[in-house]
Amino acid sequence: MEVKLIAHTQLSEDFWYELSTKNYGLAWDLTENKITDGQAVALTAIRCCYSPNKPSEIIAKEGNKYFYRDATDDKGGTDADRLFRHIVNSGHTSTLEHLSYTFAIEGVSRALLAQLTRHRVGFSFSVQSQRYVRFGSDDKSGGFDYVVPPSVEKNDHARREYELAMIEIQNLYDELRFLGVPPEDARFVLPQSATCNLVLTANLRALLDFYSKRRKGRGAQWEIAELAEKLRAAVVAVEPWTDAFFEQA
Fold first, then answer.
1. 177 is catalytic
2. What confidence category does residue 32 fall into, taking pLDDT thresholds of 50, 70 and 90?
């Protein structure tokens, strides 16, 4: 399984230009203070609900207060961190839906795909098709690949039987194609272990909810639990402040 973050929420060039050219009395710099674009968007969305200021002015007019002062709840970080903690703890996480992440997910089983697509709110999927992508041995794909469960991997006899079954299925797929069966019908013999690739886009609220259900130790199957950890790692790499909320989920 490979998971790569290919896009995530960032401030627009026009918004950056406005911050830098208008005289807002800004006493700090987002980059120098290691404030991420996601934090800026989150603060804008949260404070929009309570502030008399325009959303486009919240960072400039309120940024000093939240990003440049220590947290007033004595739990560390800045007062922005305190606000984010308050929002999550109070359940007002609709404000985190404004942060989105797009992932390339490669080499996962169709069994995982069936589990993953049960998460629909806040998730968008584009999945490699078994109808239009051909999985014959002589096709560009070179045949279908498959996932081996750990319980099979560690059992030598089970592993041999499993691999023989995969070879037999590949031969059957090839034979059906040779006999004139179109790929969209030949695919019916492909197993749940057959791998696929997909593009997944999800907002932060949806990802936190997904992680709370699929993280290791919550009874989720091993493959989707591994995916949950990889999604968390990819988000935290660009938005480190979210790590505590994944841990809390």
1. no
2. low
